[in-house]
Amino acid sequence: MPDITTLPNYPLAQDEDQGVEAIPSHPLGVKPSGNALLATSNLRSAIGTWQLLPDELILLIFEYLNGRDLLGIGRTCKAFYAFTRAEDLWKTLFVSSPPDSFTWRGTWRSTYLNLPATKVPQVDCSNLYSDALYRPFNCAHIKLEPYVSNIPKRNQIPRLPDLSPEEFHEKWADRPFILSDPVKEWPVYKNWTVGTLLSKYGPEKFRAEAVDWALRTYGDYMADNADESPLYLFDRNFVSKMGLAVGSPTETPDAAYWPPACFAEDFFSVLSDNRPDHQWLIVGPERSGSKFHKDPNATSAWNAVLRGPKYWIMFPSGETRDPPPGVFVSDDQSEVTSPLSIAEWLLTFHAEARRTAGCMEGICEEGEILHVPSGWWHLVVNIEPSIAITQNFIPRAHLTAALDFLSNKADQVSGFKKNVNDPYQRFVDGMQSAHPELLKEAQEELQKKAEGKKRKWDDIVHGKPGDSEEQETGGFSFGFGDDGSDVEVP
Ligand SMILES: O=C(O)CCC(=O)C(=O)O
Ligand SMILES: [Fe+2]
After folding, report:
1. Hey, what's the torsion of the CAs at 161, 165, 169, 170, to 10 degrees?
2. S-S: 325 plus which of 202, 338, 349, 481, CB 3.0-4.6 Å?
3. Quick one: which ligand is closest to 230's CA?
């Protein structure tokens, strides 16, 4: 019987000769729920009263069990065996109490239980029909190609060889772009591969989400995992761990890399060691990446790809703009909810996002560097195993935005060491001694913005002087948000 599905997003699991990209069969044979409609038997009938509960709730309840109990309940019937093989259950157990030393064994379950692949039983659960179990497997195997190709011309992120600081400040500080030249000069571009890093730094521990793993263990993970959302190495202390020198090659002859000239000005440097986290080494397998977010503290960023291309999809933000499709933001913008994994977002929202005004997309290839302007939403997915370095900075054009963020969104400020209190005041003090003129300009601009906002609010509430009765009553509907522009103050 062919596989059918109730969910339009799930491709049918078909043979390659049928001309559709094949998703391999689930290792236990579990099929999407829709197949139950025509099935003659269903393993779920063996779970007794649990049948009253949806699969998602069963998995949620299983999250409260420890490893021994999961194994126990998994022995009661094939259906529960399949449920207890859900990788997220074992990942959570592993991450909540990581052992000091372990061997990565291809899955979180096998790693937690220290089971060699030969000891994992092949149980046939082909009469179990469950979207909750099939979905993560499906998402772990989707082909990225349809999403990262055929980028509409209007969406394409511009690509340039290089930019001078003046060109950047005058024309490009608010726009995403890719530079193809500067990174090709970096020693880390010439020398780093996953292999060379493993041989040089294998025992060194790096941060990967909630765990610190020896790089060689992370290398084993990269080479052999089937996660829907692969663990992503994102380490902010790599420069010291790896003993790197960073700086312009004229001043630092043994420099491993240096920011391109157009990104060199960075006003957070006035805080020297008290600046917030600003540089990361990023390593991940194919399909790893970053869900939609804006970078911290209203900073801009560059992201240099050393190995493995990255697909970027980006949107501008602003008071009059909605967040990207599939992303939800609280009223004060302090909480961003992006509930879907990258794969599920691609399946569900990519087509709509591509049609949405403001969308920019591009592939940053090996040896290229991409600019993320302050305040832009971005989602990134690695098309192949990837190594990148990213750095956040405050350019001249976004000094006001950074001051605004530090002073008016103090509760959302992040990345500072615990002992750095009142980052806003520290930043103002630092700017006052290093760049008093620029600080004054930015503060004046901020002041104007605040007054403009107040005026706009007063206009809306009380009507503009000279407004007719009719305009006054209708004012609210076109006061905010309808003109598609991002300019807060006329
Ligand atoms: O390379 C990536 O996954 C993107 C990283 C990123 O967005 C960030 O560092 O803010
Ligand atoms: Fe980012």
Report:
1. -70
2. 349
3. 1
For a mutational test of ligand 1's pocket, the pick from 287, 377, 380, 384, i.e. the residue with the most ligand atoms closer than 8 A to its C-beta, is 380
Question: Could you give the angle at which helices 131-139 and 55-62 cross, rounded to 10 degrees?
Answer: 80
- Residue 113: pLDDT over 60: yes
Q: 257 in helix, strand or coil?
A: strand
Provide the angle, in degrees to the nearest 10, between the axes of the packed helices 436-462 and 469-479. Answer: 130
Range 10-46 burial, b when 16+ CB lie within 10 A, else e: bbebeeeeeeeeebeebebbbbbbbbbeebeeebbee
* Rounded distance between C-alpha atoms, residue 172 and residue 177, angstroms: 8
Sorted by sequence, the CB contacts under 8 Å of residue 93 that are 6+ apart come out as: 66, 67, 70, 108, 112
The 10s digit of each residue's pLDDT in 295-336 is 999 999 999 999 999 999 999 998 889 999 999 988 777 788
pLDDT at 477: 31
Q: What is the pLDDT of residue 461?
A: 64
Closest ligand to residue 306's CA: 1
Three-state DSSP class for residue 248: coil
286, 390, 391: which to mutate for ligand 1, most atoms within 8 A of CB? 390
Q: Are strands 289-293 and 369-372 parallel, antiparallel or unpaired?
A: unpaired
Q: Ligand 1 mean position to 318 CA, how many Å?
A: 20
pTM, full prediction:
0.88
pLDDT at 140 over 50: yes
Cα 483 to ligand 1 centre (Å): 31
Gap from CA of 114 to ligand 2 centroid (Å): 35
All domains of the chain, ordered by start, with CATH? Answer: 16-139 (1.20.1280.50), 145-412 (2.60.120.650)
Confidence at residue 144, expressed as pLDDT on a 0 to 100 scale: 97
> How many residues in the chain?
490
**What 3-state class would DSSP assign to 293?**
strand
